[in-house]
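Worked example 3 (structure in, sequence out).
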């Protein structure tokens, strides 16, 4: 399946392909050690990585950080800093994009009403914004961002823009950039 997500836009929001492990917003987020373009190892386990096709020396590098969040992750990172090559960073980004978007599209297509436009046929800007919110809040947007999810599966794009602008989370700058992108496609 081919998607038209603007990965450059997402990469800028996520801070780009980072080769050094870090913890975004230690006090406010629930993240663990993060690597590449926003790949949170705290939300993963070894089986997840194997399913993504991550193996060998890269799997060995990432494994000690799996499942650790917040201060546990920070302590581990301080004791043992994580560093990957640019090639490994791009490899992680590619497998995550391919795998994650397939799951997101499947959830989206299962949630829309009969006759509605499928994820893969949405405007690239809409695909990108849905992916952006999902990368940050997970695949369960019906639970983690229910108003936003209802608006996008209902294909009420003006309402989705309004919701993004009033999201009331820790990331208003990001939400407004997403709203701007979506609004520009209306």
């Amino acid at each position: 399946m081919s998607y038209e997500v603007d990965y450059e836009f997402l990469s800028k929001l996520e801070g780009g392909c980072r080769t050094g492990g870090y913890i975004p917003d230690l006090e406010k987020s629930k993240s663990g050690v993060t690597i590449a373009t926003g790949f949170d190892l705290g939300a993963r386990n070894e089986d997840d990585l194997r399913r993504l096709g991550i193996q060998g020396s890269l799997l060995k590098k990432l494994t000690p950080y799996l499942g650790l969040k917040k201060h546990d992750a920070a302590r581990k990172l301080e004791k043992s800093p994580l560093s990957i090559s640019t090639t490994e960073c791009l490899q992680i980004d590619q497998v995550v994009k391919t795998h994650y978007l397939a799951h997101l599209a499947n959830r989206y297509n299962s949630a829309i009403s009969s006759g509605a436009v499928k994820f893969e046929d949405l405007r690239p800007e809409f695909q990108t914004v849905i992916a952006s919110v999902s990368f940050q809040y997970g695949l369960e947007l019906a639970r983690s961002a229910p108003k936003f999810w209802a608006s996008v599966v209902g294909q009420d794009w003006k309402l989705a823009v309004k919701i993004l602008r009033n999201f009331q989370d820790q990331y208003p700058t990001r939400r407004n950039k997403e709203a701007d992108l979506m609004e520009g496609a209306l």
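Notes: The chain has one domain: 7-184. The longest helix spans residues 86-111.
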